[in-house]
Fold this sequence. Notes:
The protein is mainly α.
Amino acid sequence: xxxxxxKAFLSYADDICQKIAGDGFHCALAPSEYTWxxxxxxxxxxDILLMANQIEPKQA
Length: 60
């Protein structure tokens, strides 16, 4: 089970990275996600990327 959670978490982090790579402003938020607390949501995604890097570092 631990391996499944790790795989899912890292997959989600990879999805965030793909969103960032495809955004002209290098932000993980889609246009529809700019709502109340969107800054908090962007920071949460950054936290996820930091945790994923601790679990399995990847070269940028």
